[in-house]
Amino acid sequence: MTTRLPKLIAFDLDYTLWDFWIDTHVHPPLRRHHVTGKVIDSQRKPKTIAFYRDVPQIMHTLQAAGVTIAACSRTDTPLLAREALDLILIPPRSGSDSDMKPIPAIKFFDQLEIYPSSKIRHFKKLHEKTGISYDEMLFFDDEWRNQEVEELGVTFTLVPNGLDDQILEKGLEEWRKRHPVQVTEDVVRADGTLIS
C-alpha cells in the first residue's frame, strides 16, 4: 500500500475475518494445541477457529502503516469472541526475522467493540474513544444492513466471501475516492510574504 490510508480500519468478525458465527457455530471451551498452535472448539468433531487466509498479512500491513485497527461485532458471545482472538496466533510477517514468534491476534486490535448492539453505536464509541473523525474510518462487514454506518460518514465495504487482499484494496479505493487528498498551496507575494 503506497497511498493514503484511513486513520482507522474496522472489521466485523463473523464471516468477515473468520468463516463462522462465533455465537452459533462454536462451542466453548476453546483450546490451542501446544505443538501446532491450531485453535479448536469442544464439539465432537472440533471446529477449527482461524482467520481467512489473507487476514494475517493484512493485519501486519495495517499495523506497520500505523493504522488504528478495530473489531466491531454484535455477537451475543463477546467473551468467546475475545477468547478466540486471544488464542488465534498470527505468524510473523513474511520476510521477517525467523526467530520471531507468532503473535496473538488480539494484540493487532487497538480497539474492540464486541457486544450486542448496532454498528452505529460501535462507531460512536470508536469515535468517542479515539477522537478519529468518521470520514477517516473504513469498515468491512459481510452484512449489507451494516452499511448504516455511512450515515455517520464511515466508508462501508461489503465482504461477500471473507476478507482478502482484493476486498481490502476495493475498500481502500472507495475510501480514497470519497476522500481525495486536499492540498492547499501557499502563495508567496513578490515581496516574499506568505499569503495562506
How would you sum up this structure, described in words?
The strands form 4 sheets. The chain has a 5-stranded parallel β-sheet, sandwiched between helices. The mean pLDDT is 91. With 196 residues, it is an alpha/beta fold. A hairpin with a 6-residue loop joins strand 2 and strand 3 (39-40). The chain contains 4 helices and 11 strands; from the N terminus they run βββαβαβββαββαββ. The longest helix has 14 residues, at 165-178.
Q: Pairing-aware structural class of the strands and helices? A: alpha/beta
Low-confidence stretches: none
Q: Characterize the biggest β-sheet.
A: 5 strands, parallel
What percent of the residues sit in helical stretches (DSSP H or I)? 10-25%
Counting DSSP E segments of at least 2 residues, the number of strands comes to 11
Spatial shape: globular
- Please state how the strands of the largest beta sheet are arranged side by side: 7-4-1-8-9
Oligomer: single chain
Output the number of helix runs. 4
What is the CA-CA span between the terminal residues? 32 Å
Q: N-to-C SSE series? A: EEEHEHEEEHEEHEE
Radius of gyration of CA atoms, rounded to a whole number: 19 Å
Overall pLDDT level: 91
Beta-strand proportion: 15-25%
Short description:
With 196 residues, this protein is of the alpha/beta class. The protein contains 4 helices and 11 strands; from the N terminus they run E-E-E-H-E-H-E-E-E-H-E-E-H-E-E.
